[in-house]
Design goal:
single chain, 201 residues, mainly alpha, 0% strand, rod-shaped
Length: 201
């Protein structure tokens, strides 16, 4: 047996439909915006960021080589000369090495995220596709269902309600019975007075 739904206020259903239209429009815009952001992120992760990090890593390796060369040159001491202060050169070498190591870590992270991002995107695309199927269409399937239900409700309310009919006239037997009762009442003699009964002069 199919469930029955009681609709007490069609205007509430119509307001709900309006809110649903607003939600569908906002959800569709949000899906488009998120899709564009995801495309930009994937392009950045797979293309722009690796290229930028590769260039920065090559530059860091050159900086390390230059700092090491400067330190080695400063360490050369001719006989009779004082040992020079190497603090600045050693500091520059440590900074260049730290920069190179940081870039190596970032490159490894980008490669790792490139591998694991695809199943995450697949999960999101599946959920987004379900929402898109709900809100897409002109009108969407759920709106067509509501429109059909509202049309049926309006058609039901537009059906003319039959007015109460008057009672049918009394049948012949009922009429004759009423006439007999009236005649019987009229023919009954009046009750005798008490004075006549006792012969009062």
């Amino acid at each position: 047996m199919s469930p029955q739904v009681q609709v007490r206020d069609i205007e509430e259903v119509e307001r709900f439909r309006g809110a649903l239209v607003t939600f569908f429009a906002a959800a569709g815009d949000s899906l488009l915006a998120v899709d564009m952001e995801l495309r930009r992120f994937v392009d950045w992760l797979r293309g722009e960021q690796p290229r930028r990090l590769d260039r920065a890593y090559i530059d860091s390796m050159e900086k390390v080589a230059q700092a090491r060369t400067a330190l080695q040159r400063k360490m050369i001491v001719l006989p009779g000369e004082r040992h020079p202060d190497l603090i600045e050169e050693q500091k520059a070498l440590r900074q260049a090495q730290h920069r190179r190591e940081d870039l190596e870590t970032r490159i490894a992270n980008v490669r790792r995220w490139t591998r694991i991002i695809e199943p995450i995107l697949d999960d999101y695309r599946g959920e987004a596709r379900q929402l898109a199927n709900l809100v897409e269409g002109d009108p969407a399937a759920s709106l067509r269902f509501l429109d059909s239900a509202l049309a049926q409700l309006h058609a039901y309310l537009d059906v003319a309600v039959p007015t109460p009919t008057t009672l049918p006239p009394a049948s012949g037997s009922a009429k004759s019975m009423a006439i007999e009762l009236d005649q019987t009442t009229e023919s009954d003699p009046p009750a005798p007075d008490s004075e006549d009964e006792h012969g009062v002069d």
